[in-house]
Write a structure and sequence with these properties.
With about 450 residues, this protein is mainly α. About 70% of the residues lie in helices and about 0% in strands. Keywords: Membrane, Transmembrane, Transmembrane helix.
């Protein structure tokens, strides 16, 4: 019944609008999405290294020399800002997960997208989490506490270790069921660097994309922007991540649907009578400075960093939370990140030369291994990296600068090797298992 229903809807949509598969779209490949992930990997490595070993360069919560604070404000605001990096990964994920279905809107592709993503993330994340359990159960965490005190790093906390296997399993289970307080989940407390909550957020919010994307192939293309922007307004009002989901889906839809793709190439129409149009790359490059101006303002005056929440009316009307409580509970979709991310994305999507540069084999290879590098960075830096730093600086009396330099290059090489091993041993098999599992269930 379900496949027949989808086929009838698709036939009706093709009759009214023309199918994205039969009509030509100027946007054929999506390899530049991997390229963007590859660049973000470099930024995430820098952030984690600085956050762990030179915290003043990464955060205002730990005091340090003035030149380090200056580096954070000038360069860290753009090149290794954790909020920007994690939000960009979130948007690229929402941009990517809908591609298969939008290009071929069948029941099989819709169900397959949901099933494969669920199995792949559970298996890969579970493997990473249990590796972490083993490492820190064996090494303990006292050396991290000692390292934190020696460096006077207020930005990190030692990971906890589950007391029983059941506690460890429940932490993994909750990641894919609990839809609030992502940073307060047990799995996040068990993970070095406390960033595993981002995976939980990314997975649970992907259901918003799944819900919205199933409507698009069967509605008139000219209605797509209005519907998604209306949803965006509601999510923005609530300060929900659905605001980012809907905008990322709109970008994907505009590049896949032949009717919208042609409009994206021709530009935004200001006046049909006078044929006034604004190129979308110009709109994108206009958005980026707005976001940068906001981020630099918060970098210079960090005590005002959450004041942008005044733009979300729900938080002032809700009786269950205040702006201060909301900001402290979880990461939220920031306005400054939105302008930078979607300004860049709009520019990249509409400039073929930029897409070609981002589609180079090296960046694509890095992007495909993004999850593996995410796992490797935290585990290597918080085990071998901190151990090596302590041995070089505390035991041998080498300067902090030389210890940092040695740890930087040593962990970089180790992370590359660890990530490649994890990619081949866990990530690729998890994708294979997800595909085989889906065919076993449906065929």
């Amino acid at each position: 019944m379900a496949p027949k229903f989808f086929e009838e809807l698709r036939h009706l949509a093709n009759t009214m609008n023309g199918s994205p598969k039969t009509a030509h779209s100027p946007f054929e490949k999506d390899n530049h999405i991997y390229g963007l992930r590859g660049i973000l990997l470099i930024s995430s490595f820098l952030w984690l290294f600085f956050q762990t070993f030179i915290p003043t360069v990464a955060t205002h919560t730990t005091s340090g020399p003035g030149y380090q604070r200056l580096l954070r404000i000038i360069f860290g605001t753009v090149l290794w800002d954790e909020s920007l990096i994690s939000s960009f990964f979130f948007v690229l994920s929402a941009r990517a997960i809908c591609i298969r279905f939008l290009k071929d809107p069948t029941a099989d592709n819709f169900a397959g997208t949901i099933f494969r993503r669920s199995i792949r993330l559970v298996v890969a994340t579970g493997a990473a989490l249990f590796i972490s359990y083993g490492i820190f159960a064996g090494l303990g965490t006292k050396y991290i506490t000692s390292f934190k005190q020696t460096l006077q790093n207020n930005s990190i906390n030692p990971p906890r270790v589950p007391k029983t296997a059941l506690q460890g399993f429940n932490a993994l289970f909750d990641m894919f069921w609990v839809v609030r307080e992502y940073d307060g989940q047990a799995a996040n407390a068990f993970w070095p660097s406390g960033t595993l909550g981002r995976i939980s957020l990314l997975y649970n919010q992907s259901w918003t994309t799944f819900f919205l994307m199933v409507l698009l192939p069967f509605a008139r293309p000219q209605w797509h922007p209005q519907v998604l922007l209306l949803f965006t307004f509601g999510a923005f009002w609530m300060c929900s991540w659905g605001w980012y989901n809907a905008c990322a889906l709109l970008v994907a839809d505009a590049t896949i649907n032949s009717t919208l793709a042609l409009k994206l190439v021709s530009g935004l129409t200001i006046s049909e009578k006078k044929d006034w149009k604004v190129p979308y790359p110009l709109i994108g490059t206009f958005m980026i400075p707005i976001g940068l101006a906001m981020k630099y303002t918060w970098a210079v005056f960090p005590r005002y960093v959450n004041d942008e929440l005044v733009l979300h009316p729900y938080l002032d009307l809700s009786e269950q939370t205040t702006r201060r409580q909301f900001a402290a509970a979880d990461p939220y979709p920031r306005v400054d990140n939105f302008f930078i991310i979607f300004g860049l994305l709009l520019t990249v999507e509409t400039l073929p030369r930029v897409r070609d540069i981002l589609s180079t084999p090296g960046l694509i290879s890095l992007g495909k291994r993004s999850f593996s590098f995410f796992v490797a960075q935290s585990l290597v830096m918080w085990s071998a990296g901190i151990k090596l730093w302590t041995h070089i600086h505390v035991v041998n009396g080498t300067s902090v600068a030389l210890a940092n330099l040695a740890v930087f290059f040593t962990t970089l090489v180790t992370i590359v090797l660890f990530a490649e091993a994890f990619y081949r041993a866990v990530d690729v098999p998890s994708q294979w298992l997800a595909t085989v599992g889906y065919h076993w269930v449906t065929k």
